[in-house]
Design brief:
The structure holds 2 protein chains of 2 kinds.
Chain A lengths: L3 E12 L2 E12 L3 E5 L6 H9 L6 E6 L2 E2 L5 H6 L2 E3 L12 H9 L10 H18 L15 H14 L4 E5 L7 H16 L3 E5 L3 H7 L2 E6 L2 E6 L1 H6 L1 H7 L3 H4 L1
Parallel strand pairs in A: 3-8, 3-9, 6-7, 7-8
Antiparallel strand pairs in A: 1-2, 1-4, 4-5, 9-10
Helix pairs in contact in A: 3-4, 3-5, 4-5
Chain B lengths: L1 H27 L7 H19 L3 H23 L4 H21 L1 H4 L5 E2 L5 E2 L2 E2 L2 H21 L1 H11 L1 H6 L4 H27 L1 E2 L6 H14 L6 H17 L9 H19 L16
Antiparallel strand pairs in B: 1-4, 2-3
The chains are: A alpha/beta, B mainly alpha.
Chain lengths: 251, 291
C-alpha cells in the first residue's frame, strides 16, 4: 500500500464544555475511499472543518504529504490539493453552472489569473471536462439556483473535479439522490479512485458506504470507536446499536 | 435653462460613477457599505487640494483622488472586512460617523465645517473644460473597466464570495484579498467622483459626505439593480431627477418638495423590494424565494 497523503493525529476541538472531536486520528491514502460513519453529532463534519482550516484544532496535528496544515487558512489548504463539498452544497447560486465550475479552476484573487493563454486554455478544458463527467454540459448556461436537486449535487461534484485536487472530503454527497443518480455518482467516485484520488466520505446511506468504501472509521461523540473494512464495521452489533440510537444495547 | 440641465447632467454623471462603483462592492462582492460617501469626500478634498495648491488639472486631480481614496480604503476596510454581513454594515456605519467628525475637525485639510472654497474649474492641459465631458469620459472608463473585470475571473471570484464565502474559500480563493481589491476599486472610483464634484461645484464641505449621501448612493444601487452594469446608472438618474422633477410640479409648494421627495423615496423603495427585489434592471428571479 502507498504512503498516506494525509495523516491526522489526535485532532481535538471543544465548543464550550462539549468535546465535538476528541483525539481523532485518521489517514487518507491515494486511490482509497474512507467513509466516516456515525450518528448525528458524532463530529464527522467538525473533522472536515479541522482538516480544511475552517476551524482551529485545540490539539492534534494534520500532515499533508508530510507538511503540517494546522493553522493554515482554508484557501491555503485548498490550494495544497484538498477539496471539499458541503452538506448544504453552498453553490454559487446566481452564477451559471459553467461559471460555478470555472470558479473552481481559478485560485488567484487578483484582477487576472497567472499563466497567460496556455493556462487559460487548460482551465477551460478542466471546466469542460468536469461538466462532461458530471453530465452537466447541456445545462452549462443555466443558473445554479434553477437546477434540480440531483443536478445541484452533481454541480457540487463538478467543482471538485475541476479543482483537480488529490484529496476529496465529501460531506453526504449521495444524500437525497435517486437510484440512477446514485449509480452515476458511484461511477464518478470509482473513476476518481482509479485515478489515485484519496477520498473521505461522510455518508448516512449505508448501501453507498458498502459499495464505495474501502475502509470505515466509525465515530461517536467525537472519537473513533472502530476502524476497518466495511463488512466488519457494519456487522458489529454494538456499533449498529449506537448508529441507530440504542445506546443501552451498545452498552 | 441649458446651464441648469448641464449642471444636472454633470451631477448625474458624478453620481452615476458613485453608484456604479458602490455596485462593485455591494452587487458583485456582497459587501454592504454605508460609507461610500466617506471615500467620495476623501477624493473631493484630495482633488480640491491638488487643484488649489498644485495644478488645476482634472486628470491629475482625479488620479490623486483615486489613489488617496483607494489607499485609505484599504487601511480602513481591511480590519472591517474580517467581519461579514450585518456586522460589516455596522462597521461601515461607524466609519461614516467617524469620518464626518474628522472632516469637520481637520480644518487644515478640509477647511472644517466651512469647507474649501475657490476651487478652480477643471482644466486639461491648461485649457478650462466643462465638467460634463470629463465626467462622462470617467464614467465610460469606469464602466468599461467594471464590465471587463466582472466578466473575467475576478468578477467570478467576487460573485462566488457573494453567493457562498466559505465555498469560495474551499476552492482556494483568498476571500480577504479579493474583498479588499473590490473595496479599493470601488473607493478609488468614488475618489474620482469626489475630485470631479469638487472641481464642478468649486466648493466642498462635509455636508456632501454625510450618512444621508451614503444612503442615497446605496438607494441608487438598490433601486436600479445590484450586480448589473446599467442598474445603478438608472437608479442614479431616477433619484437625481426626482427632486428636479418635483420642483417643476406647480401643485407642490416649494417648501414641501423635500418632504414629498422623502415620501416618494420611501414608497418607491418599499414597492421595489416587494415587487422587484433585484431592482429595476435586475434579474427578476433574484431576491425571491426558491422552493
Amino acid at each position: 500500500m502507498s504512503e498516506p497523503l494525509l495523516v491526522c493525529e489526535g485532532l481535538s476541538r471543544s465548543f464550550g464544555g462539549v468535546k465535538a472531536v476528541a483525539g481523532v486520528s485518521l489517514s487518507l491514502t491515494a486511490g482509497m475511499v474512507t467513509a466516516l460513519v456515525g450518528p448525528n453529532g458524532a463530529g464527522k463534519t467538525t473533522c472536515f472543518n479541522l482538516i480544511t482550516g475552517n476551524l482551529r484544532a485545540d490539539a492534534g496535528s494534520a500532515l499533508l504529504r508530510g507538511q503540517s496544515i494546522m493553522g493554515l487558512k482554508p484557501h491555503r489548504v485548498a490550494r495544497m490539493g484538498v477539496a471539499r463539498s458541503f452538506q448544504d452544497l453552498r453553490l454559487f447560486t446566481h452564477m451559471s453552472v459553467r461559471d460555478n465550475v470555472r470558479a473552481a479552476t481559478e485560485t488567484s484573487a487578483w484582477f487576472w489569473q497567472p499563466g497567460g493563454a496556455a493556462a487559460r486554455k487548460a482551465r477551460e478544458a478542466a471546466a469542460e471536462e468536469a461538466l462532461a463527467r458530471t453530465g452537466l454540459t447541456a445545462l452549462a448556461e443555466a443558473r445554479a439556483i434553477d437546477l434540480a436537486y440531483a443536478e445541484r449535487k452533481f454541480l457540487s461534484m463538478a467543482r471538485i473535479l475541476a479543482a483537480r485536487a488529490d484529496i476529496w472530503l465529501l460531506d453526504e454527497p449521495a444524500s437525497g439522490l435517486d437510484l440512477s443518480s446514485r449509480r452515476r455518482f458511484g461511477e464518478l467516485l470509482k473513476e476518481a479512485r482509479r485515478q489515485g484520488v484519496a477520498i473521505c466520505l461522510i455518508e448516512h446511506n449505508l448501501d453507498v458506504v458498502t459499495e464505495l468504501a474501502d475502509r470505515i472509521a466509525f465515530l461517536d461523540q467525537g472519537q473513533v470507536l472502530a476502524e476497518g473494512d466495511p463488512q466488519t464495521i457494519l456487522r458489529d452489533p454494538k456499533l449498529a446499536a449506537i448508529y441507530f440510537g440504542d445506546r443501552e444495547d451498545a452498552a | 435653462m441649458i446651464a441648469y440641465f448641464t449642471n444636472l447632467a454633470s451631477l448625474g454623471a458624478i453620481f452615476c460613477i458613485l453608484a456604479a462603483t458602490l455596485n462593485v462592492a455591494v452587487g458583485y462582492a456582497g459587501i454592504f457599505s454605508v460609507a461610500h460617501a466617506v471615500f467620495f469626500g476623501l477624493g473631493a478634498y484630495a482633488g480640491a487640494q491638488v487643484s488649489l495648491l498644485l495644478i488645476p488639472d482634472a486628470l491629475v486631480a482625479m488620479v490623486v483622488a483615486a489613489l488617496v481614496a483607494g489607499a485609505l480604503s484599504l487601511c480602513l476596510a481591511l480590519p472591517a472586512l474580517r467581519v461579514r454581513g450585518e456586522y460589516f454594515v455596522a462597521a461601515s456605519l461607524g466609519l461614516q460617523m467617524m469620518a464626518v467628525t474628522l472632516f469637520s475637525e481637520a480644518k487644515t485639510l478640509t477647511g472644517g465645517i466651512g469647507g474649501l472654497t475657490g476651487i478652480p474649474r477643471p482644466h486639461i492641459l491648461g485649457v478650462e473644460v466643462s465638467t460634463l465631458p470629463v465626467a462622462l469620459a470617467a464614467l465610460a472608463l469606469i464602466l468599461l473597466a467594471t464590465a471587463l473585470l466582472m466578466r473575467g475571473s475576478f468578477g467570478r471570484t467576487l460573485q462566488a464570495i457573494r453567493d457562498g464565502e466559505s465555498a469560495a474559500e474551499a476552492l482556494g480563493k483568498n476571500v480577504a484579498a479579493a474583498k479588499a481589491l473590490a473595496v479599493a476599486f470601488a473607493c478609488a472610483g468614488a475618489g474620482v467622483a469626489g475630485a470631479l464634484f469638487a472641481m464642478h461645484m468649486q466648493f466642498v464641505n462635509v455636508e456632501s459626505f454625510n450618512l444621508d449621501q451614503s444612503v442615497l448612493i446605496m438607494a441608487m444601487v438598490i433601486i436600479g439593480g445590484t450586480g448589473t452594469l446599467w442598474g445603478p446608472l438608472v437608479g442614479a438618474v431616477i433619484l437625481l431627477s426626482l427632486p428636479a422633477g418635483l420642483a417643476f410640479m406647480p401643485f407642490i409648494p416649494s417648501t414641501e418638495v423635500g418632504a414629498v421627495q422623502q415620501i416618494i423615496y420611501g414608497l418607491a423603495m418599499t414597492l421595489l423590494m416587494v415587487f422587484r427585489p433585484a431592482g429595476l434592471v435586475g434579474d427578476l428571479s433574484r431576491g425571491k424565494s426558491h422552493a
